Amino acid sequence: MEELTTYPSDQSVGTTGEKPFSTSAIKGHFFSIWPYRLVRILLAGIFLWSGVTKLMDLKSFAVIIEAYGLIPESWVMPVAVILPTIEAIAALGLLMDIEGSLAVVSGLLVMFMAILGYGIRMGFDVDCGCFGPDDPEGKAFHGLRPALYRDVVMMAGVFYLYFWRYHQSLSPVRLRALLNNQSGEES
């Protein structure tokens, strides 16, 4: 029978004193700043791309919204303007790690998942409208289920960001503090 290899405390690796393949080494990487930044930037990029592409063709996006039949016809165009604008602004806020932007992104994801779930339940065969009217994903998969699965993965990223912030006791930048710093530099 083979003996298990143990690492005495004097054979630690690196400057942190962590042993190879220890849970604390994995935990150290999971809670380092780089995965947090990567997930935050990826989510921001997705939401920015989504918002901007919808804003570039509002009439086509309005047709997609209308296909779901969830809002009165008179609200379709205002929603087609407001929704992608909120997406783009929240994405920029998330990119700069501004307080409240992650909450807006998570709220949008919950709303999108609810709408996609509704569409799946009703048996709709429509483009999700997630990345505007010329969405390559919509053309390739043409279904609501892949969009719902993608949103679930993005929500996992949101949960990771919240968990990381809680674990690191980190608060995002307050917009007021950011604006005060900008005005102080100009003086």
TrEMBL record:
Residue ranges the record marks as coiled coil: none
TM segment ranges: 38-55, 75-95, 102-120, 147-164
Family matches, as InterPro entries: Methylamine_util_MauE (IPR009908)
GO biological process terms, semicolon-separated: methylamine metabolic process
Gene Ontology cellular-component terms listed: membrane
Alphabetic keyword roster: Membrane, Transmembrane, Transmembrane helix
Entry's localization field: Membrane
Membrane topology: Multi-pass membrane protein
Methylamine utilisation protein MauE domain: residues covered: 35-161
Protein name listed in UniProt: DoxX family membrane protein
Organism for this UniProt entry: Candidatus Desulfatibia vada
